[in-house]
Structures are given as C-alpha cells and as structure tokens.
Amino acid sequence: MNLKRYRVNNIQEALQLIKKDLGPEAVIVSTRQVKEGNKAFGLFAKTMLEVTAARDDKSQAKPNIQASSQATASGYRATVNGMPRSESATALASPEVPTPTSKPVQSNPASDPYKALQPLRQEIQDLRELIQNLGDRTASYEGQTVAQLKQELGEMRYMLHSLASRTGQTDDLNLPENLMVLYQQLRFSGMEEKFARRLMLEAQKNIAEDDLQNFSYVKIFIARMLMKIVKTTRGVESITAPQKIFTLIGPTGVGKTTTAAKIASEQLLRYKRKVAMITIDTFRIAAVEQLRTYAKIINVPLSIVSDKADLDRAIASYSDYDVIIIDTGGCSQRDESQMFELRELFDERGRLHNVLVLSSTTKDSDLNEITRRFGVVPIDSVIFTKLDESSSYGSIFNHSIRFKKPISFLTTGQKVPEDIEVATKERLVDLMLNISGN
Ligand SMILES: Nc1nc2c(ncn2[C@@H]2O[C@H](COP(=O)(O)OP(=O)(O)O)[C@@H](O)[C@H]2O)c(=O)[nH]1
Ligand SMILES: [Mg+2]
C-alpha cells in the first residue's frame, strides 16, 4: 500500500500526479488548504492545496514505487510494500487493528486487506510510541512535530480502517472530477456508499456547471450539505427546564463515567452551576468507586441508587441543584432483563434528558444494533467518545442520517475534565473534510 501527499495549485494538478504515481486505482484520502511560503509574514504566504492519496497494493496498477517516490521527493511519502511472508495470520487479530466496518475479510491471502495492512499497523504502533515520548517532554518547539505526527497517525488509521473494509471497488459512479474527489474522501472516512452517493448526486444537481470546476466551491457546498445532516444540542444548553437532568446510558467501556465527570466539572467550573451526581447500582457492576473518586475530586455530592423509587427520592433531594448528572453501569444491549430495568428507570419524556454514549471506534453495524436496542428508552441526544482513537468519523454521519439523533458532546481523550467538547456542526464537518487544515 502506498500513501502520498502532494502540494499543488489545484485539484487537476494533483489528479494528474496521482494518476502518474499511483495509477488510476488510487483514492483521495484527504484534501486541505495550507499556507506555503513566508510564514513569519503571512502576507507572502501562498495558499496551496494539499492532497493525500492512497493506493492499495492489491490494485491493478503497479508503477515502480521507488521511482515514483523520487519523482515527488519534495512531497510527503509513506510506502508500505506488503507483509513479510512469515507473518502469521493470528498476529493480525491483535487489538491494535481497528475492526473493519463491514464485509468479511477475503480468504485469499494475496488479496487479504488485513495482511496488506500489517506493516502499517507496525508503523502506527511506532508513531504512537513516538508521540507518547514527545508528549511526555512537551516543549513548545516540539508541539508542531507532535501535531504533524498525530496527523500522520490519523491518516494511517483512516487507511487501516477503510482499506480493511474495502474488498472491492463497487462504487461505479460517474461524477464530475471535483465531486469524485470529495466522494472518495467521504468514503475513505467511512461514510456509507449509499449516503455518499446520494449526497454527491444531490450536489451535482444543485451546483452550476461553471462552479463544478471550482474545487473550493464544491468542497464548501458539500460541507454545507453535511452541516444540514448533523444536529447538535449545544451540550446541555438545549435543555430548557430550570433543572437539567442528564442521564448517560450505553454499553460498558464506552466512557460514560469519565464523560459524566467531565460534564459535571465543566458545569461547575465554567458555568458556575450547582451540580450533583447520581449513579445506578442495579447492574451490580463495581464501577461506583470510580465515580465516587471523581465526585470527591470535583467536590460534588453523589447518590447511589438501586431502583426507580430510590432514583426519584435522590432527584427530589437535589431539587435546589441546577444540574444532575446520572451515570449508569454499562449494560449489554443483548441482555433483555438489563434493557427492561433501564426502561423502568428512564422511560420518561420531558424530565430526563437521556443520552446514549457511543464510542466512535465502534463499527457501524454495532452502533446500529446498540442504538436500536437502547431505543427502549427515549434517547434525546448522543455523545461520541474516543475521537482520539477513531479512524472513521464517517460513522458519526452514518448514525446521524440513520437515526437523526442530535449530538451533544464529543470526547477526545482520557483526561478529566479537559478532553471534552460541546459538539458543533462545524467541528463534525471538519472531521470529515478537514476544512480548517488542522
Ligand atoms: N482514548 C480515550 N479514552 C477514553 C475516552 N473516554 C473514556 N476513555 C477511557 O475508556 C475507558 C472506559 O471509560 P469509563 O468511563 O469507565 O467507561 P464506562 O464503562 O462507559 O463508564 C477508561 O479507560 C477511560 O479512560 C476518550 O475520549 N478517549
Ligand atoms: Mg462506568
């Protein structure tokens, strides 16, 4: 597999180079605008287009990789030539490899995307360690290096995820060049084929012939369309009731308790609101201690309840609090009795704002099942956690299109309280299209 980055004046220039270097099978991974030239005096900086393209090794076109790398020596390049013969298939099952979003892996080892991705996995591991080491010694001049490495890591994750799930080019779309580039980018980010296709065909209908030639125009047009797809709630601010009661539900391990602590501390410190926490102990999972520790650090009261009557009493006892965050023990969406208990507790419209917490590292089909099963209680918004570990932000859009649930927060790391953001449409679209160039 081959990954290349080009700095060009326009997309046509990039497409020519990509075709020459990587062949017609190459796909566009990302596009972004960058400033080049005299950075100290931004006046003279020129805006260039940076395009990253990738070609899977199993694709038909096989140009000489060494030669092509020299031809574009000024650009970034990462080449992986395939897995050594001795590599065993079991090594590929290690948790380092993100789960593919769909389609079973092909059994033919020569065209097995997992095998092709093995060396990339090693590079990701190396990069991760490098970032960790640099991060540990964070000095300002190193910030840029860390950011650059993080971007490379992100791009590699994209590749792992989507190449692993792509077992054949079935996308037989005939689109104008600029739309095709963005279509590939959305597909590479994990957007479902039928959603990306629909979006592009709609855009093609609505963009004038002349404007279709202008890549920036087309990209902004698609960004606007994506902004219409996702809904957000401004964190807890969309709750208009005088008392905001926020319930976090979802599978085990997605980050509910950590997120509860982050939101509680944001409400307390930033909004100066009076905050209390409640946790449900019905599923007998010994996670109460974790929340107790957070509550102590943040210095908010915590109640532990075990049934509906208890819960009502606890909520009543906090009647003079502005915000109540309710954490729940993780439960399995396949356990009917746990789902029943959940409904007993939280099937209330109006008083409670129920939030389904999902990890952005979870594959699409699981996100769908989880959302359907947890739908036994009314879901008012969704939180996507672990953006820092994710490689397929397309899943967030697939989820939004499919379930039309607004997104309240995004979490971006393990640190409490800082690794959380109120979800905004701009940020979500930026994750897909990299408009800001960060
Ligand atoms: N990388 C990353 N890890 C997270 C994030 N949020 C939570 N975690 C970690 O995920 C693990 C499970 O979190 P926890 O809050 O206990 O999940 P719960 O079972 O849903 O309550 C912990 O190790 C957290 O530190 C996030 O945004 N990014
Ligand atoms: Mg928990």
Q: Can you give a write-up of this model?
A:
Helix 5 packs antiparallel against helix 6 (193-206). A hairpin with an 8-residue loop joins strand 11 (407-411) and strand 12. The protein has an eight-stranded mixed beta sheet with strand order 7-6-8-5-9-10-11-12, with helices on both faces. Strands 2-3-1-4 form a four-stranded antiparallel beta sheet, with helices on both faces. 39% of the residues are buried. It has two domains: 2-175, no CATH class; 244-433, Rossmann fold, CATH 3.40.50.300. Helices cover 42% and strands 16% of the residues. It has 438 residues and is an alpha/beta fold. Magnesium ion binds at residues 256-257, 287, 330. Residues 256-257, 287, 330 line the site of magnesium ion.
